[in-house]
Structure formats: C-alpha cells, structure tokens
Amino acid sequence: MLKKMVSFGLITFITMTLAACGSKEPTADSSTTKPETMWSEIEERGTLNVATSGTLYPSSFHQSETDELTGYEVEVINEVANRLDLDVEFTEMGVDGMLTSVNSGVIDIAAMGIDRDGENADKYNYTIPYKYSFGAMVVRESDNSGIETLEDLKDKKAAGAATTSYMKVARHYGAEEVIYDNATNDQYLQDVANGRTDVILNDYYSQKMAVAALPEIPVKVHNIFYDPSETNYAIKKGNDILTEKINTALEEMKTDGTLTELSKQFYDGEDVSEQIDYDFPEIELKEGE
Question: CA–CA separation, 216 vs 211, rounded Å?
Fold first, then answer.
C-alpha cells in the first residue's frame, strides 16, 4: 500500500501559471510592494498560495485511497493557515520552479526548504524551522554504490534538483549531477538500483521513510551522515508581516505540541520538530558552488 501511496505523487512539473489553482499573476512589481499591502492582498482573497512537491513521501505526497495531498510539510502549513483564518491553494512543482514562483509573487510560500546559503538566498524571507535533520545518502544495497566516504562521491552520478544544498554537496565532492524536476520516490530509488544513478543525497528522515516504504527496491540509507540542517518555509523578500504571522503560528504549534504530533504521525514516531545535537561534519562549500 505504501508503494501505491508514493507513486500516486507523480505530478508533471507545473509552469508558473497557477491556472490549476485559480490564482492570478500579479500585475505590479511585487519587489516594490509594501509588506502591509502584501498581507492585505492575502487577507482579502482569504487564501495562501503554497508550492509543494506532491511527490516526496512523507513530506508531500498523495494518499493512495483518495489521491488527497498530504504529508508533514503540507499538514503543518494547513494548520498554520487555519490559525490565520485562511484557506490554502497548493501548486505542485519542483524546488527549482519554486524559486521563480515565490520571487515573482505568484506563490506566497514555498513548502520545501530553499537553500538559505545559496545564490538566491537574498531574494527570500525565511520562517523559523519546522523541521530539523541532517544529510544522508541512498546507495545500492549490494555494493554501497562504491561509496565509503564523502570523497568517494567523485565521478559518481548523484540524483536530485539542481539548486538544493544536497546537490551542492555532491558537486563539491566532484559527483556528476543527474537533474530531476519533480520525480517520485520510486523513480529516484529505482534509478539508483538499476545503475542509472549511483546516489541520492538528501534529508535523513525522508530517505529513511522512503526506503522503508519501498522495500522491494534494493537500496539502503548509507551510514555516512553530514551537515545538520533545518527546514523553513520560504517567502518573498519583504513580505515581513506574513513571515511574522507564520512564525507566531509555528511557535504556538511548538508550544502546544501540534508540531510534535504531526511529526510523529508522518515520521514513524520521530520528532523532527526538535533540534538534536549531532556530531556530524559540516561541509564548507566554496563560493559559487
């Protein structure tokens, strides 16, 4: 059943039109719009326009029985919106498309971590974290894809989205990038198993759950960990009122246990909403990587 649940997430990469969710392209240059105007427009329409992947279990995926969009990051922002007396309209796309959509104002919030240290970081506001984790990698079960250290990533084929911090780590160690727009977990894992790629660098908890959900695919989470990380919602730079309101809601959800409850629901009893001290290496990337 879990395999069916994951594969329902196969959604074609969506261009920046939002016709599917009924949102309008902004008519003014959103970079010059005042924060109070940005918030007033959201409040008036009564809806948050949110970008999410829809393809990655357990953070954002479709239920097998109903095809309903759900997952940890989805339900967290649903609860945030409920506390702000707003509805949510989701658009499903890859992380690279989210960058343009949030920056243009077509999307209010990207519900996937955008690299805070990347070349586009100064274009966004970031909420407080709703998830803490660390980097891991999925490899072939039979031979670890020939990877025993981070240095062994050199010349290996690393699968992922181009602008993520994980792909930057792969690039730093000399891996060959194999770029996916918005693939499902089963496609990612099958490609490692059949040798089309060698490794997926990503968040530990998400990879652990995806591998467990698809036990027939001969891959595993390797015991090489790195870079403690945090995941925030990304918002258009200058949209400070919305950012503050979301932060207030997230703080309330931490205090009243809602984040912990949602985390345990989707991460097999793990509480990813609490930061834990990790003794993992932090990789210093060179400027421009």
Answer: 9
> Would you state the pLDDT for residue 113?
55
User: For residues 135 and 226, is the Cβ–Cβ distance under 8 A?
Assistant: yes
pLDDT at position 165 is 83
pTM over 0.85? The answer is no
Which of these ranges, 7-11, 96-100, 241-245, 246-250, has the smallest mean pLDDT?
A: 7-11
- Rounded CA-CA distance 55/10 in Å is 6
Q: What architecture is domain 132-228?
A: 3-Layer(aba) Sandwich (3.40)
Q: What are the sequence ranges of the domains in the chain?
A: 2-130+232-266, 132-228
Can 2-130+232-266 and 132-228 be said to share one CATH topology?
yes
Q: Dihedral (C-alpha) 120, 122, 125, 126: value to the nearest 10 degrees?
A: 70
- Among the listed residues 128, 132, 109, the one whose alpha carbon sits nearest the alpha carbon of residue 248: 128
User: Are 73 and 112 in contact, with CB atoms under 8 Å apart?
Assistant: yes
Peptide bond into 58 cis (omega under 30): yes
Q: Which residue has the higher pLDDT, 69 or 33?
A: 69
Q: Cβ distance 164 to 95 under 8 Å?
A: yes
* 3-state class (DSSP) for residue 256: coil
Torsion of CA 29, 35, 37, 41, to 10 degrees: 90
User: Does domain 2-130+232-266 match CATH 3.40.190.10?
Assistant: yes
Q: How far apart are CA 49 and CA 22, in angstroms?
A: 10
Model confidence over 186-210: pLDDT tens digits? Answer: 999 999 999 999 999 998 998 999 9
Best CA proximity match to 229, nearest among 249, 203, 209: 203
CA distance 127 to 21: 24
